[in-house]
Every structure is written in structure tokens, then in C-alpha cells.
Amino acid sequence: MPKYRKAPAEAGAAAADGGDAEAPAADEAGAAGSERRSIAVDAAAHGGRLDKLLVALAPEFSRSWLQTLVRDGHVRVDGQACTVPARRLRAGQQVELELVPTAESRAFTPQPMALAIVHEDEHLLVLDKPAALVVHPAAGNWSGTLLNGLLAHHAGAAALPRAGIVHRLDKDTSGLMVVGKTPAAVTALVRAIAAREVQRRYRALAHGAVAPAEQAVDAPIGRDPASRLRMAVRAGGKPARTDVRCLRVRAGVSALECTLHTGRTHQIRVHLAHLGHPLLADRLYGGTPALGMQRQALHAFALALRHPAGGAPLAFEAAPPPDFAAAWAQVMAGA
């Protein structure tokens, strides 16, 4: 049964606004799991708005969701597509509505994709995520995510929270991630990350000369009050610590190795911007493109942990993708 966006508590009141409409025609199966309903405009609904009539036709859904369906072309009046929710209706007109599943309900579906798997056994897998791959479905990226790929990769992923994803990388950050394949492994990995027993090391390229060469940035991170797209160092944020080591400075760019002790959203990006050294091409935090980098210059190159079943030590490294490798080499030249 396809999932739709349900109506909030006020839906009943909205339905009453629609007048005494005729009972809807029998439901029909639509394309791709959708459902079609139709209704004739009676004298009571004459002159009323289209979106109000749709609430009477489908009272279990919110008016705002039905308005979205109108704008997206899923409503017809006398056989002609109508995209104006406020359209006034005339008695005798026939209104057809196609209820389509929400993007959210279609998000958690298997989608085969090539995964760069570094290690895999029955308990976990370690993969090298490419830049531009979103890890988890969210607004604007409801498909083609790593989660979709994991659901297609092994059957057990469907029974796991977030398909076994226990930590994330930003869309434009490349590098190593560990994913659990069983409930026990997921639980053990989550606990190990919370206990700071999983070592995650990154290479980064930042504007300016980062000094001192070795430092611990221990600064809380929370949502930026000026922009919900950004995080910021702020009082009352969640504790966050990043160890930063500057390997070389060349032509106004620092080559860094960063070790995470916590895993806050955008943590390395926020901490470096807070120091006044945003990542190359990290436009969200003030970085500009340089050395050929057109996405934030951040790569998760090393991952070390104990196996969740048995405790054997595991360590992995992943070479950076070509754009980062070329930029890194320019800064490290002669080192």
C-alpha cells in the first residue's frame, strides 16, 4: 500500500468547508502505485475552491499536500489538467484526483549502484564513498543515496535502522565509512563511536597558514541561528573536538590531517572556519575554489576500529579521488 502524507488534526474542519459533495467514485489503481478518485461538483460546491473540494474527496490527507498534488499536475477538471489550487468550480464539472506516494515514502527503496567496497564480511562492510554521493535520503535527495544502494546490496539492510549506516559523510566529502550488516553489529558500532573507540582521520586543504601546527579545537557546535543550512561554534552547542595537524603550507594553502573525537554535523568544516581557515571550495563556510577544487577539500582517508564480533583490530586507508589528490600534491610538492 503506498504511503501518503496524512492530514493533521484540522483536516476534519477543512473537509466541512467543502460543502455537501457527492460521494466519490470507486477508487482506481493509478500509475506507479498511485490511486485515482473522482467527484462531480454539485450545487453546494458551485463557486468553491478546487482545493476545498479535494479535501472532501480525500479527507484523510492534508490540504497542503492536496495543493501540492494540484501544482504538480495530478488533478484534472473536465479532463483538463489544472494546476491552480484556488480555481473556482462550477456545478456539473468533473474533478479527477491522482493520489501519488510522497517522495519520502518512495525514498527507502533498493536502487542497485556500484559500491567501492574496501572490506566486507557477514557483520560489516567498509566502503570508500565518492564525492557527490548523498548518504541518507532527505529533502532534495530522496533517491540515489548510499542508503538506497545498501538496500539493494544485501537483503538484511531492510531490517536495520538506516540500512546499517552508523555515521555519515557530507555529500561532497569523500572517503571511508563503516556500515553494520546485522542488528548486533550496528549496536556495537554505534556504542564504539559514542565511546570514541573508532578512529576517523581526514585530510583537508584549508585557506591560509594554520597555526600552531598541532592543536586541538574543542568548541561546541550547534545550528547557526542565521542560517539553518549551516552549523556554527556557539554556546550551548554539543561538545565537539577535532585534532588538527598542519603538514605543510604552500601558496596560502595548508595541508592538514584532522582526527575526529566527536561526530557533529559539518564538524571539521565548522571548526576550521571558526579558526579563520575554511576549506578550499567550501562555499557554505566561506571557502573559495582553488587548486582545481570545486567541492569542499575534505577526504576521510583512514579508519581504525575493533571488529564488532570478536574485537579484532581493523585498519583501512583510502587514496583520495583525482581532484583532491592533484590539489594535495601541489601543496605537498617538495615536502
Walk me through what this model shows.
The chain contains 8 helices and 16 strands. The chain is an alpha+beta fold. Strands 6, 7, 8, 9, 10, 13, 14, 15 and 16 form a 9-stranded mixed β-sheet that branches. It has a 5-stranded antiparallel β-sheet with strand order 1-2-5-3-4. A two-stranded antiparallel ribbon has the order 11-12. Helix 2 (50-57) crosses helix 3 (63-71). The longest helix has 12 residues, at 183-194. It is elongated, with a radius of gyration of 26 Å. Residues 1-32 have low confidence and may be disordered.
Fraction of residues in helices? 10-25%
Mean pLDDT across all amino acids: 88
Provide the succession of SSEs.
HEEHHEEEHEEHEHEEEEEEHEEH
Task: Note the total helix count.
Answer: 8
Rg: 26 Å
Low-pLDDT residue intervals, each spanning 5 or more residues: 1-32
* Structural class determined from secondary elements: alpha+beta
Task: Give the overall shape.
Answer: elongated
Beta-strand content estimate: 25-35%
What is the quaternary state of this protein?
single chain
**How many β strands by DSSP?**
16
Gap between N and C termini: 61 Å
Largest sheet: 9 strands, mixed
Structural descriptors:
5-stranded antiparallel sheet; 8 helices; single chain; alpha+beta; 335 residues
Briefly, what is this?
The protein is an alpha+beta fold and 335 residues long.
